[in-house]
């Protein structure tokens, strides 16, 4: 029978890689669930007769609820075996996908997306907490790079397959696919993951009275180093989501791309990001997370402006040109996230790593929801289906990206790991 593992992990190399790839597969389903909504937007807008702003509300509902669940999870995530929590939340997440597939109207779909956010928003924090428990700090960039390939896998396999199924069998089919895939990964996780209770044995968190939960949550936001890290996460996600949710509607409405061809664009970007993620993770371990983050922030500005300012030409843009452009965007955006996530595992006191990462995931989702909401406010669709106002999103995203280039230098680890105390 397997026993709990002490920090920093004593897994054999092969077993460690298996656990990391299992976490990547778990995140693959969460990211596919979120990402597939973007290229499905033209079909959803047509099926439910909604505007881009209304569509962004469905994206925002996921993000707001993911943020709320992340904040709530910060009060209990360090009190339980991480394996059991992962399995319980993952099962609820799978039920949310089934609810999305069965949604008879847009209102039910929004509620189902909210349920998906409540569950999916916690899974990322649990995964990063497991990395923090098992992997030494000097190797977390490498480990994060493996787990972050989930983004690339979703773009390479999940989104193209989902879009292809949706074009042939209806927009519900990607969610049915997620139900099947998620259950297979859940069964694998139940078999592969060891019990993860070292954080309980070390700190006695499992015996902490519930009355301490809220004060300790508030205490997380009283640490200056935490607040600086939270702001970096918030602004990074905000500027990304001013752009990402509206790529597919603009490609279809303004540039004449067929909905079924969106899969090839995401496939090209995903392949490029897949091969770059592990390189970026290892590079950030060698060169420093701050430096690598700054490099990719600068590299992301040009693709952001290019994507948001593609001119409507006649005849329409050839699909091959868009397929060649999108990898630059995906590699740059993903390249920011790998060192950022690795950096976040080094900021908090190890005793409250799970709570900090859960709160950080909540901040990330709030930035995601606000970015999607704001990005849709000034977009307008004319009678011909053309969307205007997207260029402003690009300029705002580029400006906020440059802010994160400067601000990352302010993000450091908590000195001397002070104990979190209840506010007086």
UniProtKB/TrEMBL annotation:
Domain Major facilitator superfamily (MFS) profile: 19-412
Transmembrane segments: 20-41, 61-78, 85-108, 114-135, 142-163, 175-193, 229-251, 263-280, 292-310, 316-333, 354-378, 390-408
Location of the protein in the cell: Cell membrane
Gene Ontology MF term list: transmembrane transporter activity
One cellular component (GO) term of this entry: plasma membrane
Alphabetical UniProt keywords: Cell membrane, Membrane, Transmembrane, Transmembrane helix
CDD domains: MFS_NepI_like
Full protein name: Putative MFS family arabinose efflux permease
Phylogenetic placement of the source organism: Bacteria, Pseudomonadati, Pseudomonadota, Betaproteobacteria, Burkholderiales
